[in-house]
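In this supplementary section we document a worked example of the pipeline. Step one takes a protein sequence of length 224 as its only input; no multiple sequence alignment statistics are reported here. Step two produces a three-dimensional model, which step three serialises into structure tokens for compact storage. The input and output of this example are shown verbatim.
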Amino acid sequence: MLLVSVFGILIGTAFLFIKEPRRLRALISRRVTGNNGCASAMRYVDLSHLLEDGMKTSPGLPNPKIGALLDHKGSRFRHSGKAEFYLGKVEMACNSGAYLNSPFRRYPDRPDLSQISLETVAGLPRMVSDGRVMPNRSVTIKCGKEEIHGRGVPIRTGWDQRWGADGYRELGPYLSDESLQMLIHSKAKLVGVDFSNVDDTVDSSRPVHTRLLASDSTLFHQES
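The serialised model returned by step three reads:
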């Protein structure tokens, strides 16, 4: 189980022990605080989308291969017929499904995920921003600089409702220059979107990735 906390939400993808061997899903949990301010039982909020064997993800990238390296029946000979185990196998691009972008994704000499401390992505105060998709597909956010300073900022547009359909891969939303400037100048710690790319994919220079990851913010994509 790989675990990471995003916006105070714990994400874990069970790569090995999944009941449906051709599918993957992230498990996401959030600690609920009671009226007395004390943390109570964990509540699970699923923000992920199902990844299936062979499904289309990003154009130009190979489709995920999800299956068994060794299934229950095939494993019995290893245990003299006394036990059986399932060993899963996953082959896919790392930006399939929900994922974090580290500065290394854009800059080869900057920190990768193994070098980012949990404190920079775990337990952050967060400010959910409803993004407005303009006619040119750019997304604007209306937040005060003080509101998002040092916070995780998930940007919600509703584009994720298209996941699994051809419409999701259409030219989609991207962060406007105005929104980018706001996020950088307010020193947002973590920026998340519910669409496939923070950049306009028509622009091969990828200015949002370039500038946001240079500012040491971490990017969270719900899907890609």
